[in-house]
Amino acid sequence: MKASNCIIGVMVGILIISCQKQETTITNPEDYASYLNAQNNETAKEAIKTLQFWNTKIKEDSLQITALAPAAGAYTELFQSTGEIKYLMLAEKALTKSADIATIGKSGHLLALAHNYISQHRFIEAEEVAQGAYLLKTNTKATEMVLFDVSMELGAYENAQKYLKRIANQSDYNFLIRLAKWNDYKGNLDATIRNMEKALKIAESSKKESLLVWSYTNLADYYGHAGRIGESYKNYLKALAIDPANAYAKKGIAWIVYSYENNPEEALRILDAITKHHQSPDYFLLKAEIAEFQKEDNKKKVNLQKYEQAVNDERYGVMYNSHTALLLAEEHQKFDQALDIAEEEIQNRPTPESYDLKAHILNLKGAHKEALTIAEKYILHKTFEPVANFHIAQIYKANNLLEKANPIIEELVESSYELGPVIAQEIINL
């Protein structure tokens, strides 16, 4: 090749790289700068005001149901807006008492307690409480909605479908968001997004801020799964315009910056801003993953240690079981301890994802045949989660079944954004 042609070739290469970089940069720090710097959490402030009012009316042996219920609601809002586990526990205490003493509207108190148990990943107890509300036959539709939610968490998909049919109403927001979740489970992402968009229109007409924020963030997640990253980003921003302190939306933007734009430094800056005002152990895991991507071993180690310290708080109960089991197996090679947790997860929620946890740990341990048996019996074709499919591909490869692994690996390439850069690199190396 002539020198002039070499120069032209290099310039074209640079141009292509430049264009690719522009195409994959959809965020702008100026869009969300004010939200990262926001000091006031209006939701938390209002919840605290509510608590200050009602707590003056609640005595140690109080039977004042009118005070307990709103106090529980305020505690729940504080947990959601700050991530502080103590507020979820205080909400449970108030809800348990209100459910015990309520004579009028008892089903509503039971359903609120069921929601609290779901947040704690105490799904069997949530189902028991919701079934108790169902027997009262006073709030049937709302109860069936909660029973759908619990059934999905327990992997009781036939029951979930039964409850979904009972509450079917194409003009009802609560039905549409559950229909979206059902279609997501079935792997029909187009239908998932279509139903979530219908729900959003209802939320927008209602002008209820809590519904709008929930709708924008969930739709943003679904857009991300579909590779519609620009729309995902816009919806996270819409949520923040309503609730500038919303940690979930900020974390969503951090993921776009990290996984799609390949900008780990900016992603960490966003996460650091979130953790000043919102506490949740999984932030440390994400920071550790980013550190691994950056090949910063010490930073990864520090963040994993912070995660372990955080989840040592017994108030978290089983909420982070899956994360902890993976950490024990992947980072510390404590396979038997990790398997004990995986078994507990299967007992608590026998979903394909729980079985995937066990199969993955067994494969890491070297029990490849046992992992394969579980994968083909409980996971394959029963979930469309990319992580589960990634683990199945690893299990097939470990069992020298490359003809089965290769088609899955090809599909996984399309899920690189959702899986993140670290796993995306592992897919290439499979």
UniProtKB/TrEMBL annotation:
UniProt KW keywords: TPR repeat
Listed SMART domains: TPR
Annotated protein name in UniProt: Tetratricopeptide repeat protein
Organism: Aquimarina rubra
TPR repeat residue intervals: 213-246
InterPro entries in the record: TPR-like_helical_dom_sf, TPR_rpt
